[in-house]
Fold:
Amino acid sequence: MWGSQLSNNNGRNLVGVVEKHDYEILSTAIPTHLCLTGHASWNLLDLTFVSNSLASHCSSTVTNDLLGSDHTVILTEIKGCSPEIPLVCPTWNFTKANWPLFKKYATPL
Structure:
């Protein structure tokens, strides 16, 4: 279903969940996990799940970046949707805070 070379009970259970909930798995069939036990090898371990209705608007890309992990970074894009980015970052005036009230609610009983 997602291009893995292996088949086991965990995978079959996962397929059952995907089918039951009408999910789609975005997969590039590119291995994403570097297994360092024994001899180093790559596995297709990381998956992205989306609803069936959203799947046609999505794409997934595996990068070459490990970022200190044994898993590569996977970028998932939803086409036609752009995140709302605040134009102004919120700021707080800590001198106007009600610190006694804060302390009352922040202190454990």
Remarks:
- The CA atoms of residues 10 and 101 lie 50 Å apart.
- Residues 9-20 form the longest helix (12 residues).
- The helical segments are 9-20, 52-55, 99-106.
